[in-house]
Amino acid sequence: MRPSEIAALKRTDCVLPEESWGELILEESRPEVGAGWTDDGTSYEQRGLKRRARRATRSAPIPPILVGLLRTHLNTQGTAPDGRLLRAVGGGRVRSTEYCEVWAKARTKALSTEEANTPLDEVPYSLRHAGISLWLKAGVDPVEVTRRAGHSLAVLYRFYAKILRGQSGSNSLIDAVLNEAAG
Predict the structure, then answer these.
(1) What average pLDDT is seen over the chain?
(2) Is residue 117 part of a domain?
(3) Are the CB atoms for 45 and 31 separated by under 8 Å?
(4) Residue ranges making up the domain that contains 42
(5) What is the pTM of this model?
(6) Over residues 149-171, mean pLDDT
(7) Longest CA–CA separation in the chain, Å
(8) How many CB atoms lie within 10 A of CB 39?
(9) In this structure, how many other beta carbons lie within 10 angstroms of the beta carbon of residue 86?
(10) Mapping DSSP to helix (H, G, I), strand (E, B) and coil, where does residue 10 land?
(11) If I label 87, which of 73, 122, 164, 165 is the partner at 20 to 30 A Cα–Cα?
């Protein structure tokens, strides 16, 4: 998910079954733009998903571990009055400065000193890139990856093609199909 999609995520957007894959039905985005750029003086806009029709939705399957984390979050933290999962202390939108501060602290705890001194996971958006890269490395069809990520094949190949190159298992996959066809 993009940070702006996470900011808009509501309880009603979540399908969280017991011990199986869940789903997030994304339908809104709340990009942070600054109060000077909005008509109502808020620091964010409420809009549809990036590069999609105004009322379009996108389904994002989520693994059981994330389903469990979201269920725990809802049970312990509840939601904002409008149903959003993540909120600031007063119930408003969590600002990027706030989650970037938390991210910086988490990086120093999770990474070695050497890793922390590199660009590795430098910003929270890196999680999106890591997730998409993981799907590609796992062998998920690129068309399915683009559907889940909410962008085009052109974007996938432009920014993630390096992940697709040099996969050691590629020749084995091709051999298997050729051998099957040869019968």
Answers:
(1) 81
(2) no
(3) yes
(4) 1-93
(5) 0.68
(6) 73
(7) 67
(8) 6
(9) 15
(10) strand
(11) 122
